[in-house]
Amino acid sequence: MTSVVGQTELGDGPPPSSLPLTYRRSGLAWALLSGACWGLDGVILGVALAAAPLASAAALLAPLVAAALHDALAAGWMTAFITVIGRLRRLPRSLATKQGLVLCTAAVIGGPVAMSGYLFGIKYAGAAYALALSATYPAVGALLSRLFLREHVTRRGWLGIVVTVTGAVIVTYTPPSGGVPHFYLGIACAAVATFGWGVEGVLAIHAMKIIEPFIAGTLRMATSAVAYLVVVLPLVGGLKLFATVLAGAGFWVVLAAAGAGAAAYLAYYAANHLVGASRAMPINSLYAVWAIVFSVVLTGMHPTLQLVVGVGVTFGGALLVVSGAPRTGADLAENEAIFPPAMR
Predict the structure, then answer these.
(1) pLDDT of 145
(2) Cα dist from 39 to 33, 95, 160, 186, 313, whole Å
(3) 75 neighbors 251 (Cβ within 8 angstroms)
(4) In a 3-state reduction of DSSP, which class is residue 324?
(5) Cα→Cα distances 60→8, 44, 118, 121, 128, Å
(6) Does the pLDDT value for residue 244 go beyond 70?
(7) CA-wise closest residue to 121 among 71, 195, 66, 65
(8) pLDDT-based confidence at 331, cuts 50/70/90?
(9) Is 322 helix (H, G, I), strand (E, B) or coil?
(10) 242 vs 251: CA distance, rounded Å
(11) pTM
């Protein structure tokens, strides 16, 4: 397959017969790394949201501002990374392709649109239902990848996806309290988030037929940041709070979270590229496990029995997904490495 930068720039690479097993193992490793980094990202970002000035801001405004700053800083981290590995010049050329536009669309759907749906889902339906519903995004991604990308998923793989989603629901669910007058509106908003995150992965895989994963991840994060700063924050009146956070001590906390988030997205896109959404997304959802580990270590949190059970179920589902991965490379569309020979 010819990439946007040309086959000669990618090098000859390993012989086709050696690719499937290598791709499967490295892709699952990337997905595992992505989940660990995303779990760390969430814990650090939670610290920022609990401190001034975000802690005293409006309930919906603070997360949107934090997300905007997070994505902007993460895009900076990613740009620095691809500069160090000598890939920066491929960024504008990739953006100019049709796949680049697809990737920008994925960024808007998976970034501001899905996150806004998630936040409004919490507001109108309550955190219990919004978190539980959004946790099913790996199943949505797997179904869409089967329909549109023709990814092959074994019966054991499907069982693993169901178990992983069930574990994520157990981890995030808490009994609702009080009346919920706009419950169905909240459920609809949470469904937008779930669908958006599933669609993002599928569109990104399509775009990565041409665009390298690390370039794709950088474009995704930069597009999301621009959408937040140009559209979302002006609409919700969040630019003033954004400037306040940018100039305060909380900036350094968000910068640290963005570093972890940048690593998570680079690894997530690499995993989707190598093993597909049906396997990368469930393994990535182990971020719930890592978030608990990092919360215990960094914040002294004491996990409940519900969390322990949910984590155990999620981990068991992830093992089923891994063991259910096909033993051949017939369903892998991309026979090219992430790195050129000099970087491998």
Answers:
(1) 83
(2) 10, 29, 20, 25, 17
(3) no
(4) coil
(5) 49, 19, 10, 11, 17
(6) yes
(7) 195
(8) very low
(9) helix
(10) 10
(11) 0.79
